[in-house]
Amino acid sequence: MRVSFLALGAGIVLASMPVASDAQRADNDILPRSTLLQKQGEEAQHAGNLDAAVDFYESALAADPRNRSAIIAMAQVARAQGLPGKAIGLYREALLLEPNDLVALTGQGEALADKGALELAREKLAAAQRLCKDKCPQVAALEKAIATGATKRVVAAEAIAPKPVATVGTTSQN
User: Fold this and answer.
1) Which helix (H) or strand (E) segment is 30 a member of?
2) pTM over 0.85
C-alpha cells in the first residue's frame, strides 16, 4: 500500500517536470503580436496621438510583458507628456529586464534631470559612459539634459534669492 502511494507520488512529480518543449523563449524573442502592437504605437506617437500610442504600447505589453522596447517607448511618451516621475518608473522596469540597456539608462537619467535630481542623473551618466566607450548620441543627450537642468536650478535660485534693497539716503532738513 505504501509503495503504491510512493509510486503514484513519483509519477505525478515526473509528469509535472518540464520537458524541452516547455523551455523558455530567449529574452529577445518577443511575441509577434506584441511587436505589431508596438509598431502601431510608434505610428500613433509619430502622428502626435500620444494617448493612442500609450494604448498600443500597453496592449503590446499585455501580449508580451518582456517587450522592453514598448516599455521604453511608453517612458518616452510619459516624458513628452511632462510626466518625468512616470517615465523614471518605466525606465526602471526596462532596466530590470536588461540592466545594460543604454537607451533606458540614459532615458532614465534625462527624466531624473527633468525632475531636478541632478546627482542621480550624473550617476546614470557615469554608468552610461562605462557602457559606451565611443561617442554615443544618448550619452550626449543626457549630458545636455544635466547641463540644462543645472542651468534651470541656477535661474530658479536667482529668482528666489532676495534682491538687495537699494536704500535712498535721507537728509534731514530742519
Assistant:
1) none
2) no
- What is the pLDDT at residue 29? 86
Task: Please give the Cα distance from 59 to 68 (Å, whole number).
Answer: 13
Residue 70 burial by CB count (10 A; 0-12/13-18/19+): exposed, middle or buried?
buried
CA–CA separation, 104 vs 95, rounded Å? 6
Question: Which string of b and e fits 113-140 if b means at least 16 CB within 10 Å?
Answer: bbbebbebbbebbebbeeebeeebebbe
Radius of gyration of the chain (CA): 27
C-alpha span between 69 and 96 (Å, rounded): 13
The mean predicted confidence, pLDDT, of the chain is: 83
Backbone dihedral angles phi then psi of residue 91, each to the nearest 5 degrees:
-60, -35
Question: How many other C-beta atoms are found inside a 10 Å radius of the C-beta of residue 108?
Answer: 28
pLDDT at 20: 42
Low-confidence ranges of the chain (pLDDT < 50): 18-23
